[in-house]
Structure formats: structure tokens, C-alpha cells
Amino acid sequence: MGCFMNLLWLLLGGIVTAVEYVVASILLMITVVGIPFGMQTLKLAALALWPFGKEVRTGERAGGCLYIVMNVVWILLGGIWICLSHLLFGAVLCITIIGIPFGLQHFKLAGLALTPFGRDIAEAQ
Question: What one-character DSSP code corresponds to residue 13?
């Protein structure tokens, strides 16, 4: 069932979302300073491409000082807007019963978009 839902996700906008994240990642990686932020947008692209059956986990290094500082910089430079857009899409999709599974995936993306540093994407158990 997860494979079918992922295919439906791709057809209904997942590819567009993933491509947007990849383009943003490439643009961020042009400068040396933007490379860590570009890596995080690649992480978002991977989750946006195939979200069903994946979960976002907090890594053991997430509480480190550098990750906290990088997350704060991420939020201030646009992470909050990415998070809010996924929350909005999730809320709109959850209005209908059919859209609830897709809305939940947007909520998952919103959590990762808010604080991506120190988070890992893994197979759901």
C-alpha cells in the first residue's frame, strides 16, 4: 500500500516539490557558506520524493551546539516559511478524508523543514 501511496504522491505534486528542493540545493551550494544548507534541502528533497514508509528521527548528535546554532540560522533565513507552507498544505489536505494521509506527510515535511540539522530520515518500523 505504501508504494501505491508514494506513486500517487509523486503524480500529485511530489516530483514538483522534490525538484524545487533540488534546485534550491544547487543554488545554495554555489557558495561555500551555503553547502550545509544545501545538504539539508537535499534531505528535504529525498523525503519529498518518497515520504510514505519513511520517518524523521532525531540523531544522537542533534543536541550539539553547532546543530542548534545552524537550526536557528536556518529558521531565520527561511526555514520558518518552508515549515509554514507544509503546515498549510497539510491542513488543507486534511479537510477531506482522502487527503488525510497526504496531509500527514506534509506535517512530517514541516517538522523536518523547521529544524533539519541533526535529523535523519530512516525507514519506518
Answer: I
Task: Please report the pLDDT score of residue 65 as a whole number.
Answer: 81
Cell numbers 525538484 label which residue? 19
In the chain, how many domains are there?
Answer: 1
Query: To 5 degrees, how large is the angle CA 86–CA 116–CA 100?
Result: 30
Q: What is the pLDDT of residues 72-89, one digit of tens each?
A: 999 999 899 999 999 999
Domain that holds residue 23: 2-123
Residue 119: phi and psi, rounded to 5, are: -110, 145
Sequence-ordered list of residues with C-beta below 8 angstroms from that of 109, at least 6 positions apart, any chain: 44, 47, 48, 51, 86
pLDDT at 37: 93
